[in-house]
Amino acid sequence: MTSNTASSIEPVNAVHLVGRLSAHVQVRILPSGDQLTSFSVIVDRPARDRRGSTTVDTINCLTIRPRISAKVQGLDPGALIEVWGSLRRRFWRTSAGLGSSTEVDVTRIVRVRP
Q1: Is 23 exposed, middle or buried (0-12, 13-18, 19+ CB in 10 A)?
Q2: Which of 29, 70, 75, 108 could in theory staple to 79 by disulfide, Cβ–Cβ 3.0 to 4.6 A?
Q3: What is d(CA 79, CA 35) in angstroms, rounded to the nearest whole number?
Q4: What mean pLDDT, rounded, does the chain reach?
Q5: Which element (helix H / strand E) includes 68?
């Protein structure tokens, strides 16, 4: 049996979500010419976190991959989807100071058929 010591554990940044596509899919052309597609996945919280009503989290996602962008743009809001990717934190300056957000950089998306 192998011991899980700090020296034997490799860092991992992996996200796997299953939820519903929100109504807002946005496409923006970057100065580089790349197309940035952003959308949100609405995920129900586990039952143990619920207090009498359905509680959800809305997870912001983005991609510059053309195939994933085309796929998500072709889906209807509310479609059940499965998303894989990694977390990314972005920073920017505003007149009020430094802003930031954490998003999923999507590497794969699949529509889940009920």
Answers
A1: exposed
A2: 75
A3: 22
A4: 89
A5: helix 66-73
